[in-house]
Specification:
It is built from six helices and two strands; from the N terminus they run H-E-E-H-H-H-H-H. It is mainly α. It folds into two domains: 39 residues; 151 residues, Ferritin, core subunit, four-helix bundle (Ferritin). A two-stranded antiparallel ribbon has the order 1-2. Helix 2 packs parallel to helix 4 and helix 3 runs antiparallel to helix 6. The longest helix is centred in the N-terminal third of the chain and has 38 residues. It starts with a helix and ends in a 22-residue tail after the last helix. It comes from Sphaerisporangium flaviroseum. This is DUF4142 domain-containing protein. Keywords: Membrane, Transmembrane, Transmembrane helix.
Length: 213
């Protein structure tokens, strides 16, 4: 092969390498913003500054969840006074009314202060549980009451605990502590009825693997 041919081949290789570099650079700048957004779970526009610190999507969702919990647990606690067959279930219902009435007042005040819009109706799942309970009385009511409320508290506990552990907002952190305590109290009360079907509760996720050393 002549020197001229070798020189031509090298020029082609250099051009090809430069072309690949340009394409790779464009790809990185195209994908990176989306990847960054996915990594943090929200874009910067989803956050707002408040006097008590940054307020993010999880903080707002936490306030919504607390509000919706009260929107179905207060009337369900009231309903239990007429439909429950067990005095213990009725007593637990009264605790739900009392605790969520206090929480509801707190969440409304905090949401107004932080400019977070709250719902005025329970979510579709909660509405379904309320409709289901409205068809039952006596022991059948007691079992459904305990099962649905215990399962719901287990789900919301995970969300509230995550916010308590990671929020950057001091007022959300303080209120999340209150909510965690109330949810734990209610889970214990519901279990004290003796009507909870623990086998029907979701299995906890497996533990995370130990980080490599």
């Amino acid at each position: 092969m002549s020197r001229l041919q070798l020189k031509s081949m090298r020029i082609v290789e250099v051009i090809a390498a430069l072309g690949f570099l340009v394409i790779a650079t464009i790809t990185v700048f195209t994908i990176a913003p989306n990847a960054f957004t996915a990594a943090i779970g929200a874009s910067p526009s989803d956050w707002s500054d408040t006097d008590s610190g940054p307020l993010g999507p999880a903080d707002r969702d936490f306030l919504v969840k607390v509000r919706q919990a009260g929107l179905w647990e207060i009337p369900t606690g009231q309903q239990a006074q007429q439909r429950a067959g067990s005095n213990r279930v009725k007593e637990v219902g009264r605790h739900l009314i009392e605790d969520h009435t206090k929480l509801d007042a707190q969440v409304l005040a905090l949401a107004a202060k932080l400019s977070v819009e709250l719902p005025s109706t329970p979510n579709p799942d909660q509405q379904g549980w309320m409709a289901e309970l409205s068809t039952k009385t006596g022991q059948e009511y007691d079992k459904t009451f305990a099962d649905r409320l215990r399962a719901a508290h287990g789900k919301v506990f995970t969300a509230v605990a995550a916010v308590r552990a990671g929020t950057k907002n001091a007022e959300i952190r303080s209120f999340a502590q209150v909510a965690v305590d109330v949810v734990m109290k209610h889970m214990t009360l519901l279990e004290s009825t003796g009507r909870v079907d623990f086998a029907a509760l979701p299995t906890p996720p497996p533990p995370s693997p130990n980080p490599s050393k």
